[in-house]
Design brief:
- Chain B: Pfam families: PaaA_PaaC (PF05138).
- Chain B: One of its GO terms (biological process) is phenylacetate catabolic process.
- Chain B: This is Phenylacetate-CoA oxygenase subunit PaaC.
- Chain B: InterPro entries: Aromatic_CoA_ox/epox (IPR052703), Ferritin-like (IPR012347), Ferritin-like_SF (IPR009078), PaaA_PaaC (IPR007814), PaaC (IPR011882).
- The complex is a heterotrimer of chains A (327), B (273) and C (100).
- Chain A is mainly alpha-helical and 327 residues long.
- Chain A has one domain: Up-down Bundle (Ferritin), CATH 1.20.1260.
- The longest helix of chain A has 29 residues.
- Chain A is globular and about 70 Å long.
- The N and C termini of chain A lie far apart (53 Å).
- By secondary structure, chain B is mainly alpha-helical.
- Chain B has one domain: Up-down Bundle (Ferritin), CATH 1.20.1260.10.
- Chain B is 65% helix and 0% strand.
- The longest helix of chain B has 29 residues.
- Chain B is globular, with a radius of gyration of 18 Å.
- Helix content of chain C is 17%, strand content 21%.
- Chain C is built from two helices and three strands.
- Chain C has a three-stranded antiparallel beta sheet with strand order 2-1-3.
- In chain C, a hairpin with a 6-residue loop joins strand 1 and strand 2.
- Classes of the chains: A mainly alpha (327), B mainly alpha (273), C alpha+beta (100).
C-alpha cells in the first residue's frame, strides 16, 4: 500500500544489541503489547518504522496533487466541497503520520528533505496522471479502496503512535472510497461520453492499483520480520487477492469491464484468478520513471521552497516577540 | 484608507437601461429581482474567493497552512451554495453564467500571487464580510438572515487568521514585510468597491433586506488600521477606486477562472455528475 | 526552532489536547508544527477539530513535556499493585448491610 516496501533490495541492518533486551522486546510484541516512543526497541525496528511511516506520510502528501488537479474543475458545488474536504483530509493524514514518525527521533524536516532529494519513496500510484473527472471517481474507488485494506489492520500495529494515527486516519477515510464510487455510479449511468470516461479511467487505474500492494510475496524479503513485529498484518499477495475479489462485483454493478482477459472465478481456490502484473513497469515507477513523477516532485519542492520565506517570517516574528517579552 | 467611491454615472445609467437578459430564473417581481441580484453578489463573492483559495490546496508553505486555507475555502463554498440557492439553482448559477452575469467584487477574483498577497486579500475581504454578515443576520429577509447568521462565525475566524498572518508577515523578516506591503498595495484599489451603494442596493437597504456598508466604513477603517499598526506596516497610498464588479464588469482574471471552473458542465451540458 | 531568519526550516512541534465535550478532561490527540502558541491553537483547530471533535484546545510545546522513564516503570508503578486496600472491593461487608 502506501506503506509496502518498494524495493526488493533492502539491506538487513546488523547492529550488536543486548540479546536480553531484544528478547524482552520480541516477547512484548508477540504478546500484542504496544511499544511507545521511549521504550527500548531494536534499531532495525526503529529504522523500518521511520521508513514505513514516512513513506506513508509522503504518499498522502504527494497524493494530494493528482486529486488537487481537479478541485478547481469539479462539476458541481457539492462535488467541489467533497473533493476539497477529501484532499484536505490527506494533508491531515500526512500531518498525523509525520508526527507519529517524529516520535522515533527523525524530524519532519529531515523526512521532507529525504522526499525532495529522491531518497525517500512514496506510493507508485501517484505518479500517474488524472486525465478526466472519472479519474477522481476511480481513485476514490480503487486507490482508496486498496489503501483501506492495508490501513485497517494497521490500527493494531505494534508501535503506539502509529496505531493511534491510523485509528484517526481510518475513521476519516471511511467516506473517501464511498464518494469515489458514487462518482463512478453517476458516470456509469450517465451519457455515452461519461460512460467512456468511466471505462477509460478503470482501464488506466486498474493495474497500477494492483501494483499498490507491492512486489509478490516471494520477492518481498522483509515480510516475515515485519509481520512478526506487527508493522505489517497481511502479505502483499493476500491483500491483492482480497482486493480483486471485492472489486470485481463492484465493477459488475457499474457495468464496467476490468481490463484483464484472464480474470475469472476459480471455484477451487474460492477466489479470482487474474492476469500477470507488469513488474517491470512497477520497478520503473519505483525508480521515479512514472509518467508524471517529475511533475509531482517539482510541485512538492516548489511548494516547500516558495514557503521558506513564510516559515522564516513567522519564526522571526516569534523571536522578536520573545525578545520583547524578555526585555 | 481609500475614500468612498465615486460612482461612474454613465456606466450606472447604462446598466439601468440595459435589458435584464442575463439573469437565470429571472423573477417577475421587481423586489424579487433585486433580492436575487443581491444574494448573487454575496454568493459570488464567497464562491470566487473559495475557488481561488482552493488553488492553494497541495501547494501551501507548510501542511498546517494547507489545512487552514482549505477550511476557509470550504466555508466559502458552503456560503456560496446557501446564498445562491436563494436566487435559484445554485449549480446552474455557478456553472452556467458568463462573466457579465457575475456580481462578485474585483478583490476576490484577484489571482493568489504569493502567500502575502493571498493573506492581504483575505484580510481586507474577511474584515469587510464579517461586518456585513453581522448586520445581515438581522435582515428582514429570513433566508438571508439565516445564511448570514451561520456564516458570521466562520468569517470571524477567517478574519482573525488572516489578521494573524498580516501581523506575522508584516513584522517578520525584511523580505516578508516587503511582500506583505506589496500584497496590500495590490489589493488596496479594490476596497472602495466594497462600500459602493448603487440603486439596487439602496432599495434593498431601504427595505431592511440588505445592510448599508457605509454604516461600518469607519469601523472597517479602524480595524484595518489597528492590524496594520500591529504589523508595523504603513497604510498603502490611496489609489483610484476600481469599480464595476457588481454590474458584471470585471478584470480579465475572472474569465480565466470561469473557464476552468465551468469547463465540465459547459462541455457536457446534458450530463449530471 | 528556526534560526529566526534564514533557511526556511520547519517550525517547532506542539502537543495538542482536545476536550471532546464539557465535563471531560482534555485528552492528547496528536501534534502540530507552529511558530508560536497562537498559531499552534489555530493549526490544532484546523487539523484536529474538523469533525466536531472538540469544544476546547490546549497546546504545549513538545519540548516542555517531561515524561517518566519507561525503565523506571517498575519502581514507579508496581508498588501500587500491593495496595489493594485502596479499592472498595477489598472490604468484606455482609450483603444485608445497605447503603455502604
Amino acid at each position: 500500500m502506501y506503506t509496502t516496501e518498494m524495493s526488493k533490495t533492502v539491506k538487513p541492518i546488523e547492529v550488536a544489541e543486548d540479546p536480553a533486551l531484544v528478547e524482552a522486546f520480541e516477547a512484548r510484541v508477540a504478546a500484542d503489547e504496544f511499544i511507545e516512543p521511549k521504550d527500548w526497541m531494536p534499531d532495525a525496528y526503529r529504522k523500518t518504522l521511520v521508513r514505513q511511516i514516512s513513506q506513508h506520510a509522503h504518499s498522502e502528501i504527494v497524493g494530494m496533487l493528482p486529486e488537487g488537479n481537479w478541485i478547481t474543475r469539479a462539476p458541481s458545488l457539492r462535488r467541489k466541497a467533497i473533493l476539497l474536504a477529501k484532499v484536505q483530509d490527506e494533508a491531515g493524514h500526512g500531518l498525523y503520520l509525520y508526527c507519529a514518525a517524529e516520535t522515533l527521533g527523525t524530524s519532519r524536516e529531515q523526512m521532507i528533505d529525504a522526499l525532495h532529494s529522491g531518497k525517500a519513496k512514496y506510493s507508485t500510484i501517484f505518479n500517474y496522471p488524472t486525465l478526466t473527472w472519472a479519474d477522481i471517481g476511480a481513485i476514490g474507488w480503487l486507490v482508496d479502496g486498496a489503501a483501506i485494506m492495508n490501513q485497517v489492520p494497521l490500527q493494531r500495529t505494534s508501535y503506539g503512535p502509529y496505531a493511534r494515527a491510523m485509528v484517526r486516519v481510518c475513521k476519516e477515510e471511511s467516506f473517501h472510497q464511498r464518494q469515489g464510487y458514487e462518482i463512478m455510479i453517476a458516470l456509469a449511468n450517465g451519457t455515452p461520453e461519461q460512460r467512456r470516461m468511466a471505462q477509460d479511467a478503470l482501464n488506466r487505474w486498474w493495474w497500477p492499483s494492483l501494483m499498490m500492494f507491492g512486489p509478490p510475496d516471494d520477492n518481498s524479503p522483509n515480510t516475515e520480520r515485519s509481520m512478526r513485529w506487527r508493522i505489517k498484518r497481511e502479505t502483499n499477495d493476500e491483500l491483492r487477492q482480497k482486493f480483486v475479489d471485492i472489486t470485481k462485483p463492484q465493477a459488475d454493478y457499474l457495468g464496467l469491464t476490468i481490463p484483464d482477459a484472464a480474470l475469472a472465478w476459480n471455484e477451487e481456490k474460492g477466489g479470482h484468478d487474474y492476469g500477470e502484473i507488469d513488474w517491470e513497469e512497477f520497478y520503473a515507477v519505483v525508480r521515479g520513471e512514472g509518467p508524471v513523477a517529475r511533475e509531482r516532485m517539482e510541485a512538492r519542492r516548489k511548494a516547500w521552497d516558495d514557503g521558506a520565506w513564510v516559515r522564516d517570517a513567522a519564526a522571526a516574528h516569534e523571536a522578536k516577540r520573545q525578545a520583547k517579552a524578555a526585555a | 484608507m481609500p475614500s468612498l467611491p465615486t460612482i461612474e454615472k454613465d456606466v450606472e445609467r447604462h446598466a439601468r437601461n440595459a435589458p435584464d437578459g442575463g439573469a437565470f430564473d429571472a423573477p417577475a417581481d421587481v423586489h424579487e429581482a433585486a433580492i436575487a441580484d443581491y444574494v448573487q453578489r454575496l454568493g459570488d463573492d464567497s464562491l470566487i474567493l473559495g475557488q481561488r483559495l482552493s488553488e492553494w490546496c497541495g501547494h501551501a508553505p507548510v501542511l498546517e497552512v494547507d489545512l487552514s486555507l482549505a477550511n476557509i475555502a470550504l466555508d466559502l463554498i458552503g456560503q456560496a451554495t446557501n446564498f445562491l440557492s436563494i436566487a435559484g439553482d445554485a449549480d446552474r448559477l455557478a456553472f452556467h453564467r458568463d462573466v457579465l452575469d457575475w456580481k462578485n467584487c474585483w478583490l476576490v477574483e484577484q489571482p493568489n500571487g504569493d502567500f502575502a498577497r493571498t493573506m492581504a486579500r483575505q484580510f481586507l475581504f474577511s474584515t469587510w464580510q464579517h461586518m456585513l454578515l453581522q448586520r445581515l443576520a438581522e435582515s428582514t429577509h429570513e433566508g438571508i438572515a439565516a445564511v448570514a447568521a451561520k456564516a458570521v462565525k466562520e468569517v470571524a475566524y477567517h478574519r482573525e487568521l488572516a489578521a494573524d498572518w498580516v501581523v506575522r508577515l508584516g513584522d517578520g523578516t525584511d523580505e516578508s514585510a516587503r511582500r506583505m506591503a506589496d500584497g496590500l498595495e495590490w489589493c488596496w484599489r479594490f476596497v472602495p468597491e466594497l462600500f459602493e451603494v448603487d440603486e439596487t442596493l439602496a432599495g434593498l437597504i431601504e427595505r431592511g433586506v440588505a445592510a448599508d456598508p457605509r454604516d461600518f466604513a469607519d469601523d472597517y477603517r479602524a480595524a484595518i488600521a489597528a492590524t496594520l499598526a500591529e504589523a508595523n506596516l504603513g497604510q498603502p497610498a490611496d489609489q483610484r477606486p476600481i469599480l464595476g464588479g457588481r454590474r458584471g464588469h470585471h478584470s480579465e482574471h475572472l474569465g480565466h477562472l470561469l473557464a476552468i471552473m465551468q469547463y465540465l458542465p459547459r462541455t457536457y451540458p446534458q450530463a449530471t455528475w | 526552532m528556526s534560526d529566526g531568519g534564514q533557511g526556511g526550516h520547519d517550525w517547532p512541534l506542539w502537543e495538542v489536547f482536545v476536550r471532546a465535550k464539557g465535563g471531560l478532561n482534555h485528552r492528547h490527540v496528536g501534534s502540530v508544527h507552529a511558530p508560536d502558541a497562537e498559531l499552534a491553537i489555530r493549526h490544532a483547530r484546523d487539523t484536529y477539530t474538523r469533525r466536531l471533535e472538540g469544544v476546547s484546545l490546549w497546546v504545549v510545546p513538545s519540548s516542555a513535556i517531561t515524561a517518566s522513564d519507561p525503565e523506571a516503570a517498575g519502581e514507579l508503578f508496581e508498588p501500587a499493585e500491593s495496595k489493594v486496600y485502596r479499592h472498595p472491593t477489598f472490604y468484606d461487608i455482609p450483603d444485608v448491610v445497605k447503603h455502604i
